Amino acid sequence: MSAGVPMQGTDRQGEREHDLVVFGATGFVGRLLAAELAEQAPAHLRIALAGRDEARLQDVRASLPGAARQWPVVVADSRDQAALDRLARSTRVVVTTVGPYARHGFGLAGACAEAGTHYADLTGEVLYVRRLVDELQQTAERTGARLVTACGFDSVPSDLGVLVLHQRARADGAGDLCDTTLLVRRLRGGISGGTVDSMRLMVAEAASDGAARKVVLDPYALSPDRAAEPHLGRQRDVGGVMRDAQTGQWTAPFVMASFNTRIVRRSNALTGHAYGRRFRYRELMACGRGRAGQLRAAAVSAGVGALVVGMANPLTRPLLGLVLPSPGEGPSEEVRRRGCFRMELRTTTASGRRYLAVVAAQADPGYAATAVMLAESALCLVEDEPRLPARAGVLTPATAFGDVLVGRLRKRDFTLTVEEEPAERHTPAARHSA
Fold it and tell me: What CATH architecture does domain 18-153+368-410 belong to?
């Protein structure tokens, strides 16, 4: 069966004990997610908290407001497959924050695929998603399970930003999307130990395994049919310092680009290349104009390069552990409160028209905003199923949720807008690296 085909109508959920289970509720992001759901989920939903430590689960539950203090707790360890199988059969939807997913995620995803249980995660790991596609796609299609990856800052803003660009261009009859660039214009927030651990594991595997490295470096690594992808020359998702001719901004690599770009390309492929067969996509960090912007771009580029090299080298990897946060750690409430992000996506269509999309939120991107995005993704699966695109398998946020998640996030004060850029502002855009 081909990836992303419509569901075959198999319903293996029936009447289950829970509507939604939060797996990893005692972790840093898991606690934020539980608090979000306690505030936002409808009262009729049967929500449970799951993890490996019952006492810590009870502590999390006790910290929640109102009726959430009565939510049941479910003890399950990511290393206990029998427990994961029982968990998946007990609920309609599982949302998991337990990473690195390459180490802790596959057993639960596999259990959900087999049980026909919908699944959402926060992964930013190309190798993990590739494994899900290779090993669970057909099972999930057969059972009707939606396995939705990257439902946080990786990669909801990127994926939905391109989706709304496509929808506007299509509505205007402007043709397919061609060169499309996401510029990170503002980014303020902290980093957690779980994110660092995921990056460290993936970089180390790619550095030591030639096959894994080939997947990580492939711009179409997550395509359902690699041979069917267009030949657009070399696409460098993480480039060096350059000046964007359209905006005048000096740009540097965006550390999440190597994952986000592949999710966006998978969305295009799963929809029959609806964005276009000449769709080229990249992500960059805007660093400002003039000499100051150039220097800042050089500093950011050097920092990203040093981080990747340090994680890849077994000699320096332990040293990074001394200065970077450990799993379970994260930014303070004050840092999360002051956080924000703004991303601008510009595209040129096949007819030459240009559009600008803005995706932004006044919240820490990796934590406060991510908790909202993941909570709303889970609520899409449990509350909005009849309105979702009729697809099963390993899906992206855009292909699983579409406009439903766009609407939910707008109601949560996220900015998701599109406008056509006036003709007088049309200037030649910087070319994609090729």
Answer: 3-Layer(aba) Sandwich (3.40)
